[in-house]
């Protein structure tokens, strides 16, 4: 029975999508086994559990596999009732969490990584796009949070916090690699306050990759992308 209820997470230490699931499990206090995947040499189990995308993260619970980070987060919340609720009970509030989580996923992830993988005029255009999206998110969060105050702690952090943190939690490494700050207090006071609160949570600190390793992988990612664009 213990084997049957075992929770296993297949992830990769630098994947922001896998980090989402790690954070949810930590916040909920769910014991789990972690399997580090080499994405250049994917394990047979990863391919078996996620035959469609063959990507991390994959959560295995009761021998059944769940793929895609946002789907996994909702599964965790619906399956384990202890710990903070990752989605609010109120239908409207829940719809807003899903809307803004999808906004960050669909609008901010790609534009932020364009800043990382470009330089010169192309990078400045990407920065302008990120600022445009962050302005929209800033305005949205002023309404979403009571009195514009995030007020996040270990007992009320949810899916929206997790998704935001998965993109900007390693902000110090991002700043070191690209040489500029994206979320600054003067431009985005609500987002800045939110981020500073999140990175101080114990669950976030526990799941965060070491700074030096984060810088190293981001630098390598940037250098490879710039070489590819030059070669093209």
Based on the model shown, name its key terms.
4 strands, 232 residues, 59% helix, alpha+beta
What does this structure look like?
There is one protein chain. The chain is of the alpha+beta class and 232 residues long. 59% of the residues lie in helices and 7% in strands. It has ten helices and four strands, in the order E-H-E-H-E-E-H-H-H-H-H-H-H-H. It has helices spanning 16-28, 44-49, 69-79, 91-116, 120-144, 159-168, 171-178, 189-198, 202-207, 211-231; strands spanning 7-11, 33-36, 58-61, 64-67. Strands 2-1-3-4 form a four-stranded mixed β-sheet, covered by helices on one side. The protein is globular. The model has no long low-confidence stretch (mean pLDDT 94).
Beta-strand content: 5-15%
Shape: globular
Spatial strand arrangement across the major sheet: 2-1-3-4
Mean pLDDT value: 94
Q: In angstroms, what separates the terminal alpha carbons?
A: 55 Å
Which regions are unreliable across 5 or more consecutive residues at pLDDT < 50? none
* Radius of gyration using CA atoms only: 18 Å
Helix content: 55-70%
DSSP helical segment count: 10
Structural class label: alpha+beta
- H/E topology pattern: EHEHEEHHHHHHHH
Biggest beta sheet attributes: 4 strands, mixed
Number of strands: 4
Give the topology, please:
Elements: E1 7-11, H1 16-28, E2 33-36, H2 44-49, E3 58-61, E4 64-67, H3 69-79, H4 91-116, H5 120-144, H6 159-168, H7 171-178, H8 189-198, H9 202-207, H10 211-231
Parallel strand pairs: 1-2
Antiparallel strand pairs: 1-3, 3-4
Helix pairs in contact: 1-3, 1-6, 4-5, 4-6, 7-10
